[in-house]
Amino acid sequence: MERCGGTSAAGPSPSRSPSPSPSPSPPEDRECCAGLWELPVERCERRPECGRCSRPRKVCLCPFLPIHPLKVSTCLYIIQHPAEESRVLRTVPLLAACLPPDKCKILIGRRFSEDRYPELATVCRNPSTLILYPGAEATNLEEVTLGSSSPPVMIIIDGTWSQAKDIFYKNSLFRLPKQTILRPLQALCSFQLQHGAQIHHSKEHLLKNGLYDKPMPKNKRKLRRMELLQNQFFFRKG
């Protein structure tokens, strides 16, 4: 059957009802906003940055950095949380500007699997690799014996304490190297307490000792995490 125009043998095709048009603005609103459409749009331009230290050129720190990269034998792997990349006071670019490119490698992210980062996996499995992270099994840096067969490699996690903890415990690769930097952290906490800082226990400590008196979170993800922590401590006691 041939079709012609908008009709068929069965009769005219049904037509859609037109969508309602938006109601016009009141006259007084149009009069108040009439001049706004003629105002020039101010462009938001980013301040030019130094290509070496990544600071704005007006406050460039390159005159205070070494002219030539420092000669070091240790290779650094900086594991940077994505939130640190946009911080105003960034120290990682300053460190990278002071070292040779092959001695300071920066990896940005939260999760580092062996499949996506085979080079990092090889580094973590190297017996001479150290990771700067405190813990009960951490070793004092003065007591670490470095082998002479290969240059030492050090992994540093760049982020807040909560961000660094999340990266350390949710990436099994970072629990392979030997931990260090225990005494400097203890000294830092001691200095802070001597100058008026208050002792704040972690949620793990409060749950473990039955001292957590705050209401449980409403967020399902946080609530699930709290339940896992509680079950973990109850399982240990049993």
Attribute tags:
two-stranded antiparallel ribbon, disordered N terminus, 7 helices, 5-stranded parallel β-sheet, 238 residues, alpha/beta, 7 strands
Order of helices and strands: EEHEHEHEEHEHHH
SSE-based structural type: alpha/beta
The average pLDDT score comes to 75
Terminal CA distance? 81 Å
Q: Tell me how many strands there are.
A: 7
Radius of gyration, taken over Cα atoms and rounded to an integer in Å? 30 Å
How would you characterize the largest beta sheet? 5 strands, parallel
Strand order of the biggest β-sheet? 4-3-6-5-7
User: Unreliable runs, pLDDT <50, ≥5 residues?
Assistant: 1-14
Overall geometric form: extended
Strand content: 5-15%
Oligomeric state of this protein? single chain
> How many helical stretches?
7
Structural topology:
Layout: E1 7-8, E2 11-12, H1 27-33, E3 75-80, H2 92-98, E4 104-108, H3 118-124, E5 129-132, E6 153-158, H4 161-169, E7 178-180, H5 183-194, H6 203-208, H7 220-237
Parallel strand pairs: 3-4, 3-6, 5-6, 5-7
Antiparallel strand pairs: 1-2
